[in-house]
Amino acid sequence: MTALDVPLRTDDAARPEGAPAPRGRARAAGRPSWTLVVPATTAALLAVLPLGYLGVRALEHGPARAWDTIAGERTAELLVRSLGLAAVVVAACLAIGVSLAWLTVRTALPGARAWSVLVTLPLAVPSYVTAFAWLSAAPSLAGFAGSAVALTLACFPYVYLPVAAALRGTDPGHEEAARSLGHGPVRTFLRVTLPQLRPAAAGGGLLVALYVLSDFGAVSLMRYDTFTRGIYTSYQASFDRTPAAALSAVLVVMTVLLVAAETRTRGRADYSRTGKGTARRIVPARLGRLQPLALAWCGTIVALAVGFPLATLGYWLAVGSSATWDPAALAGTALTTLGVATGGAALTALLALPVGIIAARHRGRLAHLLEQAAYAGHAVPGITVALALVFFAVRYARPLYQETPLLICAYAVLFLPVAVGATRAAVLQAPPVLDDVARSLGRSPFGVLREVTVPLAAPGIAAGAALTFVVCMKELPATLLLRPTGMDTLATRLWTETGTGSFAAAAPYAAALILLAAVPSYLLGRHRT
User: Fold this and answer.
1) Global confidence as pTM
2) How far is CA 399 from the centre of its chain?
3) Helices marked H in 107-241 — which ranges?
4) CA distance 148 to 146
5) What is the DSSP string of 451-476?
6) Which phi and psi angles does 495 have, rounded to 5°?
7) Least CB-packed of 108, 199, 256, 282 within 10 Å?
8) CA distance 234 to 228
């Protein structure tokens, strides 16, 4: 029997009173090795680069100039438009996501398992593809209404998924007690279930709000001015980058305030079960006469969010011909998209690895600072990240300007939090005492990473890389600004063709993008079930 075969106890109950803590726990609370700190610091500096750019650019001509932009009438108009759109979309997504989660998890809805899969499929459809479908079918929707419809249908799964998970994890005892007292399914949901879902719903609503504020493709196609479109227009219209930087700074402040507001909405109430063991099996509530309405509701949402875009693409593919789109160009664009997305996912996963390990294995100010810095890109929209990297490349790394490596770096900044979260969760599942055992056998810190930590966390790291690959393929504003001259991805080609009203020419690129995004999305969903 080797040292790795010995059963390990890491809980405090296995340690005599007064005995020192295990070496693994003491080391986890200390400083990480330089093998991790150096690459993690590099990733953190890359992530905070856009924030530094905003400070330099916004104050380049003095605080007064920046304040003139921030306090201007145009900024106030963009603020009202952006917040109004976010409020409407969040409210609609909460209504759709919470209701669908309750129907598929807590009720005896016919085909509940199939419906739970169908309502997550909009995640594979980018918001600008949904906007393209609705705009081509009903041009009169352009503006606020079209933007709200497209973003709602693209974003409600961000509410559905955490709420459904919360419903599966909560003990149904309270609901059973309410029903035993004569409350019907709807009243039980409103008075008992809904209060327990507040943290999950608030978290999902925050994701939707951040998505709406940073969205560029859908609002651009719908020709509705928000902060992201205003920043892009300002960047394109003038060589002076101060107005664009000032607007970006306002957007970052809005993001920070939203995150703080969501944190306050959680309150201090305890939503966990007090008993030990597993929760009782959920007894689905019977819908009775509401069952036809529930099925109609689920069917309508799936039809609008998935069926309608696919049907629209099918129509434009049918009416299109070789005169409107070129199969060879489509294949080349798809290969280019796969190439840059693969590069972005690989670099992001590599940068996230040391940060995720430090966040999972160590505590203290340094570990907290590195993890928070890695999440900085989450508060900055893609267009601002692109502007920051353009500024950096032009001044300090001219050979990288309008080259593929700069675009891949933008993907890493934008989606580093996705990979860090997956890596941290995967490393947390591996007992840290195994690292200590490897060190006791003479392995160096790098050897422990190579032979123990990374192999144990490999499935989670791979899942994070796959998810990053999907979001890299769909990213639009940073790709528009940073792509090399003459290079197109499926997203940029779709945006270009739709902008000129060439819907038949845009349809193949939209269909190819959905198809390519659906494959890793399906594999991820199958891996997690």
Assistant:
1) 0.75
2) 31
3) 112-118, 127-137, 144-155, 157-169, 173-180, 185-188, 194-196, 198-214, 217-221, 227-237
4) 5
5) IIIHHHHHHHHHHHHHHHHHHHHH--
6) -65, -40
7) 256
8) 10
251 closest CA partner among 416, 59, 89, 383: 383
The answer to whether 473 and 517 are in contact (CB under 8 A) is yes
Place of tokens 């000032």: 246
Share of the chain above pLDDT 70, in %: 77
Q: Can you give the C-alpha Rg of the chain in angstroms?
A: 25
CA 374 – CA 354 distance, rounded (Å):
11
**Nearest partner of 135 among 154, 152, 125, 149, judged by Cα:** 149
Residue 488 Cα to chain centre, angstroms = 23
State the average pLDDT for the chain: 78
In 59-72, alpha helices (H) = 63-70
DSSP letters along 77-110, please? HHHHHHHHHHHHHHHHHHHHHHHHHHHHHHB--T
pLDDT at position 334:
92
- Spatial distance between the Cα atoms of 107 and 209, rounded to a whole number of angstroms: 29
Tokens of 16: 């005599």
Q: Would you say domain 39-49+320-529 falls under CATH 3.90.1150.10?
A: no
Is residue 257 packed enough to be buried (19+ CB in 10 Å), middle (13-18) or exposed (0-12)?
exposed
